[in-house]
UniProtKB/TrEMBL annotation, chain C:
Domain of life according to the entry: Archaea
Keywords: 4Fe-4S, Iron, Iron-sulfur, Metal-binding
One Pfam family matching this protein: Oxidored_q6
TM regions (residue ranges): none
Keyword tRNA processing found: no
GO molecular function: 4 iron, 4 sulfur cluster binding; metal ion binding
The protein's name: Uncharacterized protein
Cofactor: [4Fe-4S] cluster
Sequence similarity: Belongs to the complex I 20 kDa subunit family.
InterPro entries associated with the record: Complex_I_20kDa-like, NADH_UbQ_OxRdtase-like_20kDa
Length: 362, 201, 151
């Protein structure tokens, strides 16, 4: 009987295209790739097991270091889960400062995802331009919180440091510069013919497949899944008139363009926050009591859920984290990569769905 | 032909030539507001150990006694540069970036207290916790070798088959009892709360 | 010191191929190494070329605390690199395990148990300025008179 699968090529843990170790086995027939299988497990550190029995000031740092790219949102979702258990209210100034830090981190994360994609397509010029723009954004995060990555800015009841007026003015000037540079980069990306050859129509995922595979985040919004942005249900974002961004094509190009448009939306949100920043205290006090809850927030890659159970001394008894990349990677391996033309398309499609393997296996 | 003239005119612009020959990348300086490893300011350390109790990284900061004064020492390979010890110190002995100035300007602080919890089903009356507690030794110099004590000022003592806790408010949270218990029957909870006193503007 | 050794010293301190391997980190230090490649803290202007092929590397950057899957593979990657070679540990994780070195962990720090490490850059994560300062101060010393030290 004639074999349909020639050879299974492993794209190994150490690969120039991705920064984290993951193994993808592509089953090929000639030049075409029929199916892929994703093999994970190289980054399992057992973070949830370490967190058991520790007080919140140590679990907060462990939760941040689940993923270094989206570290601010892990901090925010964990602290908001603890606040929901003990019914602690946050003063309005602290809520707005939290939104500023969250959106700055979202811009940085989307820029890294797009840099990764442009680097995989071998368009190194645009990739380096995007990475340079990201440095300005991280400068502003440093002005607000004191460090670029793993900031530890939020605590139950508020935030740690306040925003000085001269820093706010510098931040607004920097954001105007970032917006101007991003417009130029988006124009290069949209009108480049070789980028279109490698992105349009590749890795298409229709809306029914996206809903069936439970994709979340920009990957789902690029396929037209409605109402999947959890920021629509957060009270501070509702007060700032937030609307989500969707596209309908569902290919690589749509996913990258959704992220670019979310960058512009985040810049707009930060500007509105700084201009309408209310006065008042930045910490409301309050201590964590016993209870359990399941709280979800919107990470740059999708929906992030923390299930936390505490005892009366404020220690975490049981915790389970569900990160968005778990669903996106499986959807990518099964729905997007079916019968593609070559292995180069496998890597570019995988990177366009923005996997964060460290989030995936904590 | 026209395109050649266009390109030559493009590349002979003064700002293009200046960027081509004299552009430099940014110098390797760290901005002053970056949270670096905590450094000593020169204030007098009282040996209260608040920085050690609030530190989330294992083995990052230790308060050592040098000649006749206390001095905190930070180990760079373990410290994660979070800045909690800078904020927690009541004297302001440690400084890092702008943290100390902003904390004083805002009026924010961390309040911490310690609670003890004993599991009766696991405690086997060995007395390790009472003997190793440094506050016990201070309060009662004649502490028994198995943890019994005749004084009522100690934090805990062995009485009637298990550990009995008398003065929980004197605990400093050092967790020596927890590390020396063979069963993990006694556990110390370090509770921290971030507060903000209203500053008159 | 012969002329040939002098030429080798000069060349080896100015053109270094760096390969990085991520043995289970949070990705923060990884992103800071990428930020070194960005046009602001340009690392390629010093002749240092960052990729991740161990076969053409001089310096191996170890990032992350060692997870159970990498315990046997880290030594294999080290053996693949041709002489002369050196390993540099970036971040707190390969030095001491950072916050993961607590009761109930699955990792096995430090990385010095598996491969010999010559230099360490502490920080969680270290700033790109600190990584660059460390690599630039280590670069002229690490391969100096390599053949004479072998004898």
């Amino acid at each position: 009987m004639k074999k349909t699968v020639d050879v299974s090529i492993p794209l190994g843990p150490v690969h120039p295209c991705w920064k984290e170790p993951v193994r993808i086995k592509c089953e090929t027939a000639g030049e075409r790739v029929l199916r892929t299988e994703v093999e994970l497990g190289y980054m399992k550190k057992g973070i949830e097991r370490i967190m058991r029995g520790r007080p919140w000031q140590e679990v907060m740092f462990l939760a941040e270091r689940v993923c270094g790219i989206c570290s601010v949102v892990h901090n925010m979702v964990f602290i908001e889960a603890m606040e929901e258990i003990s019914a602690i209210t946050v003063p309005p100034r602290a809520a707005y400062l939290r939104v500023i830090a969250n959106e700055l981190d979202r811009i940085a994360s989307h820029l890294i995802a797009n840099f990764s994609y442009c680097y995989t397509i071998e368009h190194e010029t645009l990739a380096m331009y995007i990475l340079n723009t990201r440095e300005t954004v991280l400068d502003n995060l440093e002005r607000l919180t004191g460090s670029r990555i793993n900031t530890a800015y939020m605590i139950p009841g508020g935030v740690r440091f306040d925003l000085l007026p001269e820093d706010a003015a510098a931040m607004l000037a920097d954001l105007a510069k970032v917006e101007e540079e991003m417009k130029r980069h988006v124009r290069i990306f949209e009108t480049g013919p070789l980028i279109a050859l490698r992105s349009r129509g590749i890795g298409v995922m229709s809306r029914e497949e996206a809903i069936k595979a439970h994709t979340v985040g920009p990957t789902a919004r690029a396929s037209g899944v409605p109402d999947c942005d959890l920021r629509l249900r957060h009270p501070t974002y509702q007060a700032l008139d937030f609307e989500q961004v969707t596209r309908t094509e569902g290919d690589n190009f749509a996913r990258i363009m959704v992220r670019f448009q979310e960058v512009f939306q985040s810049i707009d949100l930060i500007r509105r926050c700084i201009e309408t920043l209310p006065d008042g205290p930045i910490r409301g006090g309050g201590f964590c009591k016993a209870g359990e809850t399941s709280y979800s927030g919107e990470a740059p890659r999708g929906e992030l859920t923390y299930y936390v159970k505490t005892d009366e001394y404020g220690r975490v008894v049981d915790i389970a984290i569900r990160t968005p990349s778990i669903m996106n990677i499986e959807a990518c391996a099964h729905s997007m990569i079916k019968d593609v033309t070559s292995i180069a398309d496998v890597t570019s499609t995988f990177i366009s769905s923005d996997p964060c393997i460290a989030c995936n296996e904590r | 032909m026209r395109s050649i003239i266009y390109y030559i005119r493009e590349f002979l612009r003064p700002e293009w030539l200046k960027n081509f020959f004299f552009a430099k990348t940014a110098p390797l300086v760290t901005p002053p507001y970056f949270k670096d490893y905590p450094s000593l300011t020169g204030e007098e350390c009282t040996g209260c150990f608040s920085c050690m109790m609030i530190c989330p990284a294992p083995g990052a900061i230790e308060v050592l006694r040098r000649k006749d004064q206390w001095e905190p020492e930070v180990y760079p390979g373990h410290c994660i540069r979070c800045g909690l010890c800078v904020e927690a110190c009541p004297e302001g002995v440690l400084a890092s970036g702008r943290i100390l100035d902003i904390t004083r300007h805002d009026g924010t602080a961390f309040r911490s207290w310690y609670r003890l919890q004993v599991d009766d089903t696991l405690c086997m009356r060995c007395g390790n916790c009472c003997v190793s507690c440094p506050i016990n030794k201070q309060e009662d110099p004649q502490l028994g070798a198995t943890g019994t004590s005749s004084s009522d000022e100690v934090i805990m003592r062995i009485e009637g088959g298990r550990v009995r806790i008398l003065h929980e408010e004197k605990c400093t949270g050092c967790k020596t009892c927890e590390t020396h218990c063979p069963n993990r029957a006694i556990r110390v909870a370090r509770m921290v709360e971030g507060v903000h006193e209203e500053v008159e503007t | 010191m012969s002329i040939l050794q002098g030429i080798k010293n000069a060349v080896r301190s100015r053109s270094i191929h760096v390969s990085y391997v991520d043995v289970g980190s949070c990705n923060g230090c990884d992103i800071e190494v990428l930020a070194c490649l960005a046009p602001r803290y340009d690392i390629e202007q010093y002749g240092i070329y960052v990729h991740n092929n161990p076969r053409e590397a001089d310096v191996l950057l170890v990032i992350g605390s060692v997870t159970p899957q990498w315990v046997d593979k880290l030594r294999d990657i080290w053996e693949k690199i041709p002489e002369p070679k050196v390993a540099v540990a970036i971040g707190n994780c390969p030095i001491s395990g950072c916050v993961y070195n607590r009761r109930g962990t699955l990792t096995d720090p430090p990385a010095e148990k598996y491969i010999p490490i010559a230099a360490q850059v502490p920080g969680c994560p270290p700033r790109p300025t600190e990584i660059l300062n460390a690599i630039l101060s280590v670069a002229p010393l690490v391969f100096k008179d390599y053949e004479e030290k072998l004898k």
